[in-house]
């Protein structure tokens, strides 16, 4: 993404989320209650950064696309993916991840070991996880 302005980031995420849901610009605009023709034009204008979106429409788009508002405003693809993953987790998982993420940021070596572990074949992961936890 060459343009990292908030409007450009939003436009890219909107296209992504709309395509993830298999919706055309026309269908999404219609679901927003704008009608097929006006709605298609409005979504196109958002995606091509011609028109800025207001907070009310931002919330409605996120709801219709079944993504968090934060996803549509994420600074980069990795952050957007993390936001979607957190949104799919249940509350206890989100709480655990909220504790785990800062700990992993503070310990890059642990993060590197976990990433290496996740790259192992699935059948080898339980033993590697036990070894990492010191449960040999």
UniProtKB/TrEMBL annotation:
PROSITE patterns: HTH_CROC1. GO terms for molecular function: DNA binding. Residues 14-72 form the HTH cro/C1-type domain. It holds the Pfam family HTH_3. This is XRE family transcriptional regulator. It comes from Lysobacter silvisoli.
């Amino acid at each position: 993404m060459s343009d990292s302005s908030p409007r450009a980031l939003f436009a890219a995420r909107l296209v992504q989320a709309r395509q993830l849901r298999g919706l055309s610009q026309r269908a999404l605009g219609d679901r927003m209650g704008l009608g097929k023709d006006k709605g298609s034009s409005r979504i196109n204008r958002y995606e091509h950064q011609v028109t800025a979106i207001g907070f009310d429409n931002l919330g409605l788009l996120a709801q219709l696309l079944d993504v968090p508002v934060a996803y549509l405003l994420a600074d980069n693809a990795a952050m957007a993916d993390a936001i979607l993953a957190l949104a799919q987790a249940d509350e206890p998982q989100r709480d655990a991840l909220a504790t785990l993420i800062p700990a992993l940021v503070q310990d890059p070596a642990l993060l590197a070991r976990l990433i290496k572990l996740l790259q192992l074949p699935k059948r080898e992961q339980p033993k590697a996880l036990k070894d990492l936890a010191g449960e040999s």
